[in-house]
Specification:
Layout: E1 2-8, E2 25-26, E3 29-30, H1 31-40, E4 45-52, H2 57-64, E5 73-74, H3 79-89, E6 97-102, H4 110-119, E7 125-131, E8 136-140, E9 143-148, E10 154-163, H5 164-173, H6 182-188, E11 193-197, H7 208-222, E12 227-241, E13 245-248, E14 251-254, E15 258-260, H8 267-279, H9 285-288, H10 302-314, E16 318-327, H11 337-347, E17 360-365, H12 371-374, E18 378-390
Parallel strand pairs: 1-4, 1-6, 4-5, 7-11, 16-17
Antiparallel strand pairs: 2-3, 6-10, 7-10, 8-9, 12-15, 12-18, 13-14, 16-18
The protein binds magnesium ion (MG).
Length: 391
């Protein structure tokens, strides 16, 4: 498993205002929120932990605004101490790999995270970095004393990824020294560190100008023109038969009948799976999971939805909204609605925008006793899903 460690224990207030820059607002959320969310939303990252200053607990709670993260770890007086304490705090989770990231780099892209993780297949360390483009001068008293060759020079960014045990050992061995990044700690400890291509937008917010630039970039990124937004629908029906419960929306509901089908007959998840597949033109559920295939007999339909979500994730897609209408007379849906929302949001977590469960909606209606649903012969569900794909 790969865990992300977000370093947010600094007290820098140069970006203006009274509070440290990682807690300043950026496009309506804290800078820290955006940084943590970038990793939370990445399918290869299993968990995210933030290192905070002990005085910032209340700021932290407000800043992460419901993001599902590991409990925060208290940092130390220097960045290097904070990272070491953060790494030690992850010991009981024993991740195979850790990506260390500055909270003040909220515009880290999925591609940069991908490249960093991928490089860890070849080396115990890998960092995002960008080649130096400007000519570099050395100066003293306002005069140039030398021109520094820029070939082979890189500007280090984060994430900086490492084999967890190796970087923890390096930090423990070098505790108390003051090195400017984790790669320097790794290098000193003899670990090979690979350079992967970072991104100019993955800059560190330090000044008020940086914050304004990040705001412009984020707004541009979220503008509809920057995305390919697609909505698709799905529809499914299953009939009632003998049984004592129905599977609906990923949960079991006690009932005097069951829904009949080749799988567990979760008509709601089937409709939603089709809607998701529709957003990327990936056919329908029957093509992916043929009812003639014995593998899917009695299958948990959650895996169908998770598969569709993986296909959307593979396209770089994010689920903006999912909406279900369950059409039946019985069972009553209202008492179970919230559990269905939570279950579906959980299944879709890898693609759910902002990890925000309010982006999942479950509604119910009857047909006033008319038609097959009115005669209680079965349940119909219609679903709509909206995804955002990279433009
Ligand atoms: Mg079906």
């Amino acid at each position: 498993m790969t865990t992300a460690l977000i370093v947010a224990a600094g007290r820098g207030v140069r970006a203006g205002g009274e509070m440290p820059k990682q807690y300043r607002l950026l496009a309506g959320r804290s800078v820290l929120y955006h940084s943590a969310q970038a990793f939370r939303a990445h399918p290869a990252i299993g968990a995210v932990c933030v290192v905070i200053h002990p005085d910032d607990r209340a700021l932290y709670e407000a800043a992460i605004d419901g993001l599902a993260l590991l409990p925060p770890v208290h940092g130390g007086s220097e960045r290097q101490d904070s990272v070491r304490l953060g790494l030690e705090g992850l010991a009981r989770h024993n991740p195979a790999r850790v990506l260390i990231h500055d909270a003040a780099r909220p515009l880290v892209s999925r591609e940069v995270i991908d490249r960093t993780i991928e490089a860890l297949n070849r080396a115990p360390g890998a960092i995002a970095a960008v080649p130096v483009a400007d000519t570099l001068k050395r100066g003293a008293a306002g005069r140039i004393t030398a021109t520094v060759p820029r070939a082979e020079l890189w500007r280090a960014q984060t994430p900086q990824g490492f084999d967890y045990a190796a970087i923890r050992a390096a930090h423990q061995a070098l505790a108390g020294e003051r090195m400017t990044d984790d790669a320097a700690v790794a290098e000193r400890h003899g670990l090979a560190v690979e350079l992967v291509t970072g991104d100019e937008d993955n800059f560190k917010i330090t000044t008020a100008d940086d914050l304004a630039r990040a705001e412009r970039l984020m707004r541009a990124r979220d503008a509809p023109g920057g995305w390919d937004v697609r909505t698709a629908t799905g529809f499914d029906v299953h009939r009632f038969g003998p049984g004592e419960r129905v599977m609906l929306g990923g949960i079991a509901i006690a009932h005097d009948q069951a829904l009949i089908g080749h799988s567990d007959a979760d008509v709601a998840l089937h409709a939603l799976t089709d809607a998701l597949l529709g957003t990327i033109g990936a056919g329908d559920i029957g093509q992916h999971f043929p009812p003639t295939d014995a593998r899917w007999r009695g299958a948990d339909s959650a895996q169908f939805l998770e598969h569709a979500a993986q296909l959307v994730a593979a396209r770089g897609g994010v689920l903006v909204h999912a909406d279900l209408t369950i059409i039946c007379e019985r069972p009553k849906i209202a008492p179970h609605r919230q559990r269905m929302v939570e279950r579906i949001a959980g299944l879709l977590a890898p693609i759910l925008a902002d990890s925000d469960a309010s982006r999942v909606s479950v509604k119910a209606t009857t047909t006033e006793g008319l038609g097959f649903t009115g005669r209680r012969e079965g349940i119909a569900v219609q679903a709509a899903a909206t995804v955002r794909l990279p433009g």
